[in-house]
Amino acid sequence: xxxxxxxxxxxxxxxxQAVVDYGGYAQAASALNKSQSSLNHAVSKLQNMLNVQLLxxxxxxxxxxxxxxxxxxxxxxxxxxxxxLEQLAVNINQDWEPEIILCVDLAYPREALFxxxxxxxxxxxxxxxxxxxxxxxxxxxxxxSREADLVILIDTPRGYxxxxxxxxxxxxVCHPDHELASLTQPLSTxxxxxxxxxxxxxTSETPDEKTGWLKSEHRWxxxxxxxxxDLLLQKVGFCWLPKHKVTDLIADKxxxxxxxxxxxxxxFTAFLVCPSPEQKxxxxxxxxxxxxxxxxxxxxxxxxxxxx
Length: 308
What we know:
- The chain has 308 residues and is α/β, with parallel strands linked by helices.
- 39% of the residues lie in helices and 20% in strands.
- The chain folds into 3 domains: 84 residues, Orthogonal Bundle (Arc Repressor Mutant, subunit A); 86 residues, D-Maltodextrin-Binding Protein, domain 2; 103 residues, D-Maltodextrin-Binding Protein, domain 2.
- It is built from 11 helices and 11 strands.
- Strands 3, 4, 5, 6, 9, 10 and 11 form a 7-stranded mixed β-sheet that branches.
- Helix 1 crosses helix 4.
- The protein starts with 9 loop residues before the first helix and ends in a 15-residue tail after the last helix.
- Pfam families: HTH_1 (PF00126), LysR_substrate (PF03466).
């Protein structure tokens, strides 16, 4: 394998940037605490090595050539990437995670997710965030496998603790022109079993059939709630969906809420779980704190004086 050996150095590119940014060799030399002759030599050597003229003197000022503008723009990306790489090394030495894996159940409202991530960004120190959508058993496995740093899921697996973030209601819906909408309400489970149900695919490779929502023998499986909604809008099937996903569609009479015997709706609680709290890094801890600050649930208050 042929190893490429760069002809230029980062220092030469930084000097070129300084000459342009400060408006000339003298000003750049003062800012960098270097001699003007050393800056002239560095830029001259850079141009000779590339066989491209980057600067030309107009009057008493060095200005970029057309080629120089292109090369300078690309050089800024180069030096910025090196700076980010060096900062990443500092973060690693300070135990700041280079990557945080966040698994989020599809039922969790994205309207609650995005503000947290937006607030985290300026404090993230360059840490990458990997967001993985999970459903049902797949959400549980994200915790038990301990491959994720944080998991938002419905209910918590045995042996793990979680912080409640919000309540999520599921409602049964179909198109207003679907036959189910014209039947006497509430509907029995036997009636529902005669119609096509749209279900969301469990992201686990070994799904637990005991989990999930009401199922019909005749069902189609999709991977996203949005796909299920698209099918419903085409008058295909019925589906249990998070209320926040269909509130506007119901209000606009594009979908209808079906009443079911013994279950007008199903309510669940979304929890934030750190699968390996003993290994929680500072980035994960900060992101977890932000989720708790943004949570949309009323926590019970305890008066310690009542125990006295």
